[in-house]
Amino acid sequence: MNLLIKENKVPAILVFNIAFFFILFLIDINTREGFGNRKAIGTLVFKKNQVHRKFDSQVVWSVIDSNGFLSNKDSIRTEALSDATIKLNDGTEIQINENSMVFLDLSGFGGTTLDFKEGSFKVTRSKDSSFFRSNLTIKSKDGSVEVGNSDVHVEKTAKQNLSVFVEKGTATVIQENGKSRKIQEHEQAELAAKGEISVKKVPLKLSIPPDQHRIISLVNSSAVNFEWQNTPHHSSYKIQVSRRPDFSSILHSVSVNGNKTQLPLIDGTYYWRVVSVNSQSGREDSSETRKLVVLKNSAPVPHSPEEGSTITVGKEKSEVEFDWSKADLAQKYKLEISESPEFSGKIIVKDADSHMISVRDLKPGNYFWRVTGSSGLADIPDRKSRAQRFSVVASTDEQRVKTDTELKAAGTPDPKSQPDPGLKSQLKEVPKGHVTGKEPEKTPQNKSNTPDKMLTPEEWKRIEDQKRADAEKNKFQEKRKSQEERIKDEQKRFQEFLKL
Question: Does domain 297-410+457-500 have CATH number 3.40.190.10?
């Protein structure tokens, strides 16, 4: 009997736990986007592709946009082929590479702490060497790295060892047992899982492009110049370019007799290094690894309203929907509407965070519209779309009401209140034998006198424009609905996870 009671308790406890955590999940997912009263400790100044943030008090990751504020104990995660640049309030820059995750902690008295989970990133502190700025500590499960006003690269190697390269200044690597070792400029240290620290001087030095450099291109491909320093005992070099920081696959491997070359690169993120065989030791030496980002700064393309289209507005539909293609680097957009093709005089300006927006109360008339995409970064110029022409007309009912009002204001009798002058003659011409309420049989003669009503080209165009406007509205509503369904999908996946 006791065994049966125990067996029944186990499922009951499991069900209770599942329900409890699911309720917490629902509460969290409905409040995850609000920054609230949190104190901002920095800003996400640049991102490419998917970058997520998780507040310390929540369990769900959410997308963070460029220029978004960061708070204490936030976790930042980048996906594949993604990049992120964080600037803290003390001037520290943290450039996070793809497939990486860091935890920001400014609550301690020892200064800023970065809890390094996976991937790789670079910390730049030499630009602002303030005396009052505290040290930065990079923590990992195998040890930690203390950084002053220096620039360092940190990554997890293929063996999950902590690797540190000092580009400028110095850094101190500390083992779990408290032993430490100072790393000088252009040295690389590796902290093994057993706590051993190995340090070596990097013999080959790279010149240009600098690390984390961004090349802004208006075309599909850019010619990139690479250069490095000539080093004793190295006569020939090989430059290697990869899409992956660990060089598991190499895109370009080019032998060069000198110390410079040029390679064509399309839009994307690249990692590059130089290797050379030492003529004295016979070993292959390698430079540090640098990251390079080629960005295509495309302009948004206007979609709707289409060129030369006519939009009908009225009481039931008073909005005009504007839609354009997403620009690769744009984080916000500015819509401009003008009656002039040169956009002179009065201009209607609307700001948008996405690639669509609705504008109310546009008066009937001819307009031109264009949109400007902005990245919010000083080194990336804004791109403006071409201008498109469209017209706004009032619906047929409103046009009729307006006509009646104008007639009354002018003292002209309403034509609808006057008797039809042809009505009397038509009554006299009623065929014999016609019964009231019965349609008379049409003859070839009266067919010509009562022709069927035909729609004018303007009426046909108005009908087609209305259909097009309704289609655009449905498209806009479907996109909004898909955003609402995203939360439901997350809830469903969580339920399925709990069932495992």
Answer: no
